[in-house]
Amino acid sequence: MLRWVLAAGLVFGVGSARAGGVLTIAQAQDPNNWDPIATFLVPWGAVASNVFDGLVLRDEQLVLKPGLAESWEVLDGGMRLRFRLRRGVLFHNGEVFDAEAVRFTMARLLGPEGAKGPQQSNYTSIGSVDVVDPYTVDIVLKRPDPVMVSKLAGYGAMMVPPKYVAEKGGVEFGQKPVGTGPFRVVGYENKVSLTLEPAAGHWDGKPKVDRVVYRFIVEPNTQVAELQAGRVDVASNVPIALIPAITASAALQVVSTTGPSVTVLRFNTAQGPTRDARVRRAMVMAVDRDAIVKQILQGHAKAVTGFQSALSFGFDPGRAAVPFDPAGAKRLLAEAKVAPGTAVSLDFRSNDTTFREVAQAVAGYLGAVGLKVQVRPFEMNVFTNDIIPNGKTGEMFQMGWGGWTFDYDNTAYLMYHSGERWNPYDKDPGLDAMLEGQRLIVDRGEREAALRKVAGFVADHALELPLYNVDTYYGVNRRVKGLVVPPDNRLRLIGASVD
Amino acid sequence: MAEVGRFLLRRLGLSVFVVLVVTLLVAWAIRLSGDPAMMLAEGAGSVTEQDLRNIRAALGLDRPFWAQYGGFVGGMLTGDMGRSFMGGLPVARMVGQALPLTVMLAFLSLGVSLLVSVPLGVTAAVRRGGWVDQVIRVVSLVGLSFPNFWLAIMLVLVFSIALGWLPPSGTEGGVGLVMPVATMAVILSATNVRLVRSAMLEVLGAQYVTVARSKGLRETVVLYKHALRNCAIPLITFIGLQFGGLIGGVVVVERVFNWPGMGSLAFDAVASRDYPVLQAVVTVLAGMIVAVNLLVDVVYGLVDPRVRGQ
Prior knowledge:
The structure holds two protein chains of two kinds.
Chain A: H1 2-18, E1 22-27, H2 42-48, E2 56-58, E3 64-66, E4 69-75, E5 80-85, H3 99-110, H4 112-115, E6 126-133, E7 136-141, H5 148-151, H6 162-168, H7 170-175, E8 183-189, E9 193-198, E10 211-216, H8 220-228, E11 234-235, H9 243-247, E12 252-257, E13 262-267, H10 277-286, H11 289-295, E14 301-303, H12 326-335, E15 342-349, H13 353-368, E16 371-378, H14 380-387, E17 396-401, H15 408-416, H16 429-438, H17 444-460, E18 464-470, E19 472-477, E20 480-481, E21 497-498
Parallel strand pairs in A: 1-10, 1-11, 15-16, 15-17
Antiparallel strand pairs in A: 2-3, 4-5, 5-7, 6-7, 8-9, 9-10, 11-19, 12-19, 13-17, 13-18, 14-18, 20-21
Helix pairs in contact in A: 10-12, 15-16, 15-17, 16-17
Chain B: H1 2-30, H2 36-41, H3 49-59, H4 65-77, H5 91-126, H6 131-145, H7 148-162, H8 175-204, H9 207-214, H10 219-256, H11 262-272, H12 275-303, H13 305-309
Helix pairs in contact in B: 1-12, 5-6, 5-8, 5-10, 5-12, 6-8, 7-8, 7-10, 8-10, 9-10, 10-11, 10-12, 11-12
């Protein structure tokens, strides 16, 4: 009798373990192509991290961990990275993953096919990829690149199956992607949905859900409506203004974590009143960041002291925030001979509805110390392709950045080094030297100190008005269990289930 | 008959010219701002000018404007619309998936709107000045004042979230069509009711209506057979004109209801500066609008024997 009960229990147990359910996720954008080298979009990474694996991976805390490489070592003073590959890994189509697949993937990324896409530039420090034996591969660098191992956990370096890609070609592969990840693609309808099912025998375990359906829904209001109607389990694109609509429902919740993306107002340091560092410092003092975070961002952000979040390598927890001091700001402005009523403009992306409110708040704070702020919205594409890189901004302009490598280098070099696209105004040989120098340092501690020095320089010269680091958050139906929200938007679904 | 043939041929030639001008305008205007290579690389931290040049070369953007435009027009003539900048899919395939969804949405909305607005417009005209007329006029004025996106969101709030009757978005089954069609139809009907009403009022005073009534014909026959037929010309003309606006409305409504039609395709293409997709979508939609107006001219002849005789 007992045996039968146990057997029944086992059957039911197995049954309920299998009934992991269907997890439906609303995704704002369809990259249209799932080939790792074709795009560089966060929505790509969010989905494709479940289909592809890299040699190394990041866990939910963004710590690097072994992926398709079981271990790696740094040789030749940082110029050679040796990876020992996991054995017995198969691509979803049955192809064997080995050193040849690594060589093929990297050759494709660095070759003419990769040049057509936006990924190649991140990997140009690689000189060659040498197969040592079928399960050992060396990545040999042309120049030191302390961030290379981090980059191998990302986008373009996801491993692809050589035979399949050669046979299908890039575009076809992009429509029917095959990787080694915990999920395989079973259906894709362009701009409508992508369906995944657990892949057999993934080295990291078996996913609990039976199926994952990504639905591509551009409009945030529609994503929230679908979440409220119970037809999607996770909404990935929820404007802050719609958060109360989610928290009002007992069935729904907002799950958040610190995000990588930081928003600042950068200054035009070449023209106008903001040429004077005292004026810039006064403006930094005049704005109450904590109030903006609390009132406008409803607490879903943290005030920052510079252009990086706590997740970034080079972040300095000891750096004190510039205190909110309108009286001090007024004194500084008077010292710099800025007459009350002096006009300054604040430029931002027109499609960012949250920032529109922030911009108005900043204008209010600056108005209180005697500056007359004109708030100017620009169409996103015009803003990032013309206004900023060609130095056509007013005194202040919005800039949001989330270095995907989680290393301050990725932000600082591009923002402050002279001649860089995102740096139309600053030219400082001392700062350039600091930025170039840290790239050559292999020792982590030394490099971290060098990056902190850069951040210190930027703060001392008030090159920007730090604002906030907005959280990564999702609207989630409470029937979803085991979903861990990572800062980088790449939801790992292996442990998730749906009641 | 030869006259008619020549007339149609001339109209057809004019239509082709209009579409060609539209393609030129679009191809020129979208290149005024924004860089597709940068859009593609957005997020890739260390993109250099050299990388952008490589991407532009791969997309064919390093060629002079006239070469790019010529390639596009030549491609359209042979049915090859090129490949999307975002993902490399053949544009013809993307348009082929989106077009039927938009055509269905547009024509269903138009059909529903006619079914609603003709009886209401006729009733309002017949009961001119009465309370029924007043109600219909006020309601149509309210309908006219709704922005379509607002109406769409309200419908979602009521029917998807409060009542749970309809899905907020998507194309599954027939139910996904209900709210997008309703949104478009409400706004179309508001104008159509007023049009039918005023056209009917004009006709109802005509002598042939008095004659029909004095023959002892039933009122419905008088209204729908004798009077309404004579309203057909202004109504058809207006539908032809309305069609352009209808397509414009589709862009917004498709986005709110996540309907993967031509409007959504255009919206994405503008945002990402996907030239081949945008050019193809605009060309196809312009072609449709021109074709509908051409059709209107032909239909004149069918409904009005006087035009046919000329």
